[in-house]
From TrEMBL:
Gene: Anapc5
Ranges for domain Anaphase-promoting complex subunit: 254-353
Function text: Component of the anaphase promoting complex/cyclosome (APC/C), a cell cycle-regulated E3 ubiquitin ligase that controls progression through mitosis and the G1 phase of the cell cycle. The APC/C complex acts by mediating ubiquitination and subsequent degradation of target proteins: it mainly mediates the formation of 'Lys-11'-linked polyubiquitin chains and, to a lower extent, the formation of 'Lys-48'- and 'Lys-63'-linked polyubiquitin chains. The APC/C complex catalyzes assembly of branched 'Lys-11'-/'Lys-48'-linked branched ubiquitin chains on target proteins.
Protein name: Anaphase-promoting complex subunit 5
Pathway, per record: Protein modification; protein ubiquitination
Lineage: Eukaryota, Metazoa, Chordata, Craniata, Vertebrata
Family: Belongs to the APC5 family.
InterPro entries: Apc5, Apc5_dom, Apc5_N, TPR-like_helical_dom_sf, TPR_rpt
Domain Anaphase-promoting complex subunit 5 N-terminal: from-to ranges: 30-167
Location within or outside the cell: Cytoplasm, Cytoskeleton, Spindle; Nucleus
GO biological process, one term: cell division
CDD domains: Apc5_N
GO CC term (a single one): spindle
Amino acid sequence: MASVHESLYFNPMLTNGVVHANVFGVRDWVTPHKMALLVLLSELGRAGAQLGLLERRRLNRLLLPLLQGPDMALSRLRKAIEECCPHLAGSVHIRLKLMAEGELKDMEQFFDDLSDSFSGTEPEVHKTSVVGLFLRHMILAYNKLSFSQVYKLYTALQQYFQKDEKKNGADESEMELTNPEELDGKMEKEELDGPLREEEIACSGPLSQKQAEYFLSQQASLLKNDETKALAPASLQKELNNLLKFNPDFAEAHYLSYLNSLRVQDVFSSTHSLLHYFDRLILTGAESKSNGDEGYGRSLRYAALNLAALHCRFGHYQQAELALQEAIRIAQESNDHVCLQHCLSWLYILEQKIFDSCVLLEHSVNKSLHFGLPYLASLGIQSLVQQRAFAGKAASKLMDALKDSDLLHWKHSLSELIDISIAQKTAIWRLYGRSTMALQQAQTLLSMNSLEAVNVGVQQNNTESFAVVLCHLAELHAEQGYFAAASEILKHLKERFPPNSQHAQLWMLFDQKIQFERAMNDGRYHVADSLVAGITALNSIEGVYRKAIVLKAQNQMSEAHKLLQKLLVHCQKIKNTEMVISVLLSIAELYWRSSCHTIALPVLLQALALAREYSLQYLASETVLNLAFSQLILGIPEQALNILHMAIEPVLAHGAVLDKGCAMFLVAKCQVASAASYTPQKKIEALESAILNLNEAKTYFAKVDCKEQLRDVLYFQARLFHTLGKTQERNKCAMLFRQLHQELPAHGVPLINAFK
C-alpha cells in the first residue's frame, strides 16, 4: 500500500479548470478561487483606514467561511463581497482582470508581493493569525509548483475569469430583453438564495484536506443540531462519494456517510460505511499514533460496540448481542474500563427487550460515577427513572432522582442531557395524568437556550427531546379543543423535522392521532377508519386499539371484542400497563352496550386496581367515572354521585375537554336519577342543578365539535325543561336537537347512553 501512496503523493491534474494534487500528500493547493481570495486580502490591506468600522466588521465575518469553505464561482464571490463593501468588490474585480488579461509575469509578481504583508515592525498580517496561515500556505504551495504547473494555474485563472465575464454578458443581454417588473422579481429571488450557503455549492473537483475537514465538520454539526440545514441525504452522499473517489482512505468521510445512511434508515449502507470507517482508521494509523500500541485494539473494540448499537437501532437484537459480546471480550483483554461501561449500558438496553432488570443499570450508574463518566451515569439515571415510572413509583421520588441527574448536567454543561431530562419530566407528568405540570415542563424546554456553541442561523434545539416536547404540546392543545394551535405546532414540527429526518415519525404519529380523535368526535367513522392504517404503520399497538374503537363505534361488537382481547393479552405480556387499562375500559363499555352490566364491574375493578397500583391518577379517575356509570345503570344513582366526587376534580383540573364534558353529563344523569325519590321542591332544585351541569357539558362538547354528545345533551335538556314546564327553552333545545339529528346517522337516543 505504501508504494501506491508514493505514486500518488504529488500528481498534478487539471480538472474543470482547477489545478490540484491528490489529497494523500498535499494539505492545500492554489486554485483560481483562492487567488481571488488572495487579491481580496491584498486589497483589504491596501484600503486600510479608508474602510469604515461596519464594513471592516462585515468583511471579517465573511472571510472565515470563505477561507475554510469550498471553491465557488467568481460571480458568487463578488456578490458576497459587494454586500459587505461595494467599492472593494470593484477593486478586486479590476485587479483580477489585469492579472487574467495580462501576462504570466503579472501573476508571478503578485505572489512575490504577498510576502511583503509580513515585513516591517508592524506587519499588516500576523504570521500565526488565520489570514496569515492562509497566506503562508498559499505562498508555499505556489513556490512548490513547477513551471508547467504554474502555466496550468495561469490558464485556469483565465478560464475562471472568462467564465464570469461570459455569465455577466449573458445577464446583461437578458436584462435588456426583460421588463423591469420581471427583473425585480428575479433579483428578489436571487437575494433569497443567499450568498454563502455551502449546501448549494457543488464541489466540481476534489477538496483540499482543510476544505474537506471543514465540510465534514460542518455537515456533522448540522446533522446533530439542525438537520434541515444540512444537505439532503442524496446530495450529501454524492459529495461524500466525490471525496472518497480521490481519497478512499478518508476515515471521517466514511463516518459521515454512516450518519447520513442512518437518516434514511438504510441498514446496508450504514453498516458498510461504519465498517469502512474503522478499517480506514486502522489502515491510516490514526489511532495508533494517538494511543500507542493500544490504538489497533481500541479501534476493534469500539467498532464492535458501534456495530452492536447500529443493529440495536434497527431491531436486530441477536446480531447486536453477538457484536456486543465481541466488544466485551476485546475490552476485557485490553482492560478498557471505559469501553466496558459503554458495553454494560448497551447490555441493559438489549436485556430490557427480554426482561426488566434494574441490577445491570444500577451497577452501570455506580461504575460510571466511579470512572468519571457523567454522561453515561446520567443516561443510566434517566433510564432508571423511566423504568420505575412504568413500574408505578411515586412521582415525587422520580423527580428527586431527576433532580440529582440535573446537578450532573449543569456541573458538566451537558446541554443535550438537560433537554432529555426536561422531556422525560414532561412525559412522566403526561403518564401520571398531570397535564398542567406537563405543559409547564414543555414550556421550560422551549424557552431554554442551548449551552452548545452553534453557528448563526442554526436551530439550537433540533433534537429528539425537542420533537417529543412539541408533540406533547400539540396533543395537549388538541385535547383542550385548540385545534388551530395544535395545527400550527404540527406545521412547525413538519418544517423543523422534514419527513425524511430521523425524528419525523414522532410528529407523524401524533398528527394521525389528533386527526383520528377529531374524526371520531365529529362522527366521521369512515375517515377515522382510513387513518388507522397510518397509525398502525407508526405504532402497531396504538393502531390496533384505535381499530377496535372504530369497530365499537360502528356497532360491530363481536369483532371489536375479539380485537381488544388479543390486544389485552399482548399488552399484558409486554407490560404496557397504560394500554392494558385503556383496553379494559373499552371492554367494559362493550359489555354495557350488550346489556351485560354485571360483567363490566369486575373488569372495571381490575382496571382501577392497576391504575392505583401504578400511580396512574388520571386513568384511575376515568375508571371511577365508569364505575359510577355502572352503578347508575344498576339503579343506585346515590352511590354513583358519592363516588363521582372522588374522581371529578382531577378530571376537571387535568382532563381533556371531551372527558370534562362526559363527566359533567354523567353528574347530570345521576342527579336526575336521584331526584326521583326527592320531595317536589327538592326535585325541582335537583333538576335545575342538572340543567346547569348540562350547560357546562354542552360548552365542553361544542369546544371539540362532538356533535353526537351534543345531540344527547340537547335531548336530555329538552326532557328536563318539559318536566319543569319551561316550554320556550324546551322548544329551543328540541329545534337544536332536530338539526343535529338530521346531520348525524339516525339511531335511537336513549335517556341513559354510554358514558363516552
